[in-house]
TrEMBL record:
It comes from the Bacteria. In the C-terminal section; belongs to the class-I pyridoxal-phosphate-dependent aminotransferase family. It comes from Curtobacterium pusillum. Coiled coil: none annotated. Residues 15-83 form the HTH gntR-type domain. Residues 115-126 have a biased composition (Gly residues). This is GntR family transcriptional regulator/MocR family aminotransferase. The keyword 4Fe-4S does not apply. CDD domains: AAT_like (cd00609), WHTH_GntR (cd07377). Gene3D superfamilies: Type I PLP-dependent aspartate aminotransferase-like (Major domain), Winged helix-like DNA-binding domain superfamily/Winged helix DNA-binding domain. Residues 1-20, 78-126 are annotated as: Disordered. The keyword Cell wall biogenesis/degradation does not apply.
Amino acid sequence: MDQMGGSRVDQSKDVGKTERVVGRVRAMVQDGTLRAGDALPSTRALAVELGVARGTVVAAYEQLDGEGWIRTRQGAAARVSEGVPTGGPRPDGAGAARAATAPGAAPGSAPSPGPGSGSGAGPGVGSMPGTALLDCRPGIPAVTAIAAKDWRAAWRAAADAPLRNALSDPLGLPDLRAGIAAQLGLSRGFAPDVARVLVVGGTSEALSLVVEGLRNHLGRAPRIAVEDPGYRSGRRAMTSAGAVLVGVPVDEDGLDVDALASAGPVDAVVLTPTHQYPLGSVMPVARRHRLLEWAAGTGTAVVEDDYDSEFRHRGAPVPALAALDTAGVVLHVGGFSKTLDPRLRCGYVVLPAGAVPDAVVAARSARGPVVAEPVQVALAHLLRSGALRRHLGRVRRDYTHRRERIAARLDGVPGLEARALNGGLHAVVTWSGPATARAVVARTAAAGVLVSALEEYEVAPGSAPPGVVLGYGALTLPQLDRALDALLGALGVG
């Protein structure tokens, strides 16, 4: 990598050294000197070559990784990411032929060409921004970000598990349930009894199980309060299971408890208190206590969907509702769709003691196991080995970089407001003026970028302001810039 020697970092000042290294690598990628898949020098070698401290290069590589320009892997050379915007072909043709990764390769390896390849930005995203559709609808995390060695080790553990002439436990493998309980103790402030942890096929299945348990316990269709706007797939799962839904408005502090109390008797309330979906508000502790007191006094079950609590970008972590629950009313729902891969279709429910939770256990047992045992073994290995925690630390940094880019690009744009940026993997952009969300979504799609209209999450028409939801979990920073350019252009402010 002699090309790096062409620009020495100024050693006379400490301030700005990291930024100079970052800028130099970015420029070399953009002008085609470095191409997708090229290896960068080790941090130690580049530090010697540039005459800077190794920590400066480490910090630069971390920033470039977080921005999506390069991918770093422990024990392997940092490489230029697939899908970043680069210059034309090199004059010498170097890098024109690259070994394609075989189908089924582990996340973190270079993807093979074809539909959906590239940086993992979701279905239909090609390898060259500007030439293929960029899917920025919410729901896809950075699936390819996990270290390949950790991913492979998890599936080796699944393959090495002894074969058994038996059915899986419908409540979930004990090792996975124990790993989930330990992780919650570390990250969410409560360590549940393993016997109260159920493995489920994702959040939607968890919610349908709760409805089934309530229906069997009550002998009628349960009335369930939901946030408006809120999680539409969860609403579909609950109505399919026989629930009658009651929309409750949300404000800047999450679900409106006064409006909930005025909505009439309900059997359960489902909410996303840590990062309201999709508007992003965080329910403060005082309101959480009010909600729990109301639920205990009325005998109402509280279903806490803790869907992306691992990704807090701003402010102090807020305790889970389950950590504050002294009356045994909270059913805590979580999963691996936002932390690893939604295609695993694996989540969990943590139940308190009581008749309704017992009915949920009975419903789970009656349905039989839904998550394949090898998937459960692999997830248990990721938890037990610490690989999941390492992965979360890595992608949390990456997501924070993307959140900061959105805030920087949209800050000060007249008439626009960026919401939901305190955590999670999506942003909500709202505006004043006559433009409808449907029209903006259509114009953005015409520019090759897919986003979702905020009105799609409404229970009652008109409950949400004009806006769109943009998922950024799987985007590189250059792809995110492209998406924001398309959105601003669709709004006529780009």
